[in-house]
Model the fold of this input.
Amino acid sequence: MRLNRLNSISVCRGDSLPQLHRRKFPRPPRRSNRSGNVCEKTWADSWPLSRRINLRFLIIALLLLALSACAPGRGKTENDAEVHYMLGVSYLQANDPTRALQEFLLAEEIEPDDAKLQAALGQAYFYKKSFADSEQHYLQALKLDKGNPMHQNNLAALYMELERWDDAISYFHQAATNLIFSRPEVAWTGYGYAYFKKKDYVTAIDAYVKAIEQNRNYPQAYVRRAETFFALDQPEKAVVDCERALEIYPDYALAHYNLALANMKLRKAGAAITHFQRVIDLIPDSDLAHQSKSYLLVLK
Done:
C-alpha cells in the first residue's frame, strides 16, 4: 500500500524533478553545512515570512490530525503515515533531525515500502551522523524506486562524507547521466569533486565544465573548479571562477574564502583581507571563519 500523493513545494527555482516518477511524498529539505558550502535551501528558508509563520499552523494541524488518529477502535491508515511524514519534514525544516527521525520511523511502521520515506529516513540519519543507517535507507529507496537519480545523488553525497570516492563517483555519474534528473549540474559537480579528492585534477575540471554547460548559473561548479585551478597553481583562473560564483550568489562564503586564498597567493593582501572578513561576517561560527581569522592574523 502506498501513501497518497501530497502537494509538494519546490525547494528553489528549477529544482523539482519532472513528473515521470510519481511522488509519494514531498522531498525533505537539505540543510547548509559548517563549511559554508552552498546547499539547497530548506522550504522554510525559501518561503516569505508569512509562509514561514504558516509552517507553525501546519505543525499544529498535523498534531491535531495525529491526535484524532488515536481515537479508540481506529486502526492506523495511510493518512496516519502522511501525518507522521509531514511532521518529520517540518522538524527537518526546524533543524531538529531527532524528532524528524522519530516521526519518519512511525510512518515507516505503517508504510515501510515507500521509496520517498526511505530516502527521508536516509537523510535524517545522515544529519544524525548515523551513516551506516543512512546508507541502508538510501539503498532501500533505490531498491524500491530503481534508477531514481535523486536517490543516486544523495547516496553519492553520503559516500563523499565517508571518503569512499569511487563509490561516490559511480553514483554521481549515474545521476548525472540520467535523463530524468533535473539537476545534472549538481551531480557533475559532485563527480568532479570526488576526482579532485583523488587528485585527478584533469578529470575534475572536465566534470565541472559539464556542470557549467548544464547550468551556467550554478555557483558551486565555479567554486569547485577554482579550487582545482588553485591546486594546479593557477590562482588567476581561480580568481575568475570565484568572482563569477559571487556574481551569481554574493553571499557564498566558500567563494569568498577561496577568492581570499587566491588573492593571497597573488600577493594581493588587501583583497584577501576583504574576503576573509566577509567569510567571518557570513558564517561566524564555522570552520571556515576560524581559518579566516587565522589568516587575518598573518595578513594584518
The domain at 216-300 is CATH 1.25.40.10 (Serine Threonine Protein Phosphatase 5, Tetratricopeptide repeat). The CA atoms of residues 54 and 105 lie 25 Å apart.
